[in-house]
From TrEMBL:
Protein name: CDKN2AIP N-terminal-like protein
Similarity comment text for this entry: Belongs to the CARF family.
Signal peptide (from-to): none
Species of origin: Neovison vison
Residue ranges of every copy of the XRN2-binding (XTBD) domain listed in the record: 15-76
Amino acid sequence: VEKLVSGVRQAADFAEQFRSYSESEKQWKARMEFILRHLPDYRDPPDGGGRLDQLLSLSMVWANHLFLGCSYNKDL
């Protein structure tokens, strides 16, 4: 159990660096969960393909849609 708790703490600490100064605690917790949920699918490849940047961008689009009511075109 301690190993699991430690892993969760490390993941949350990793994600914390991506928090925007303007996000409320509620918004950040939801976006952090989004990031952590999808992180395994967006790990940067060894050649530096920037997949993490794509995940962070998608997390902002998702949060803006959810919390601010923003809408985006279907392609996005």
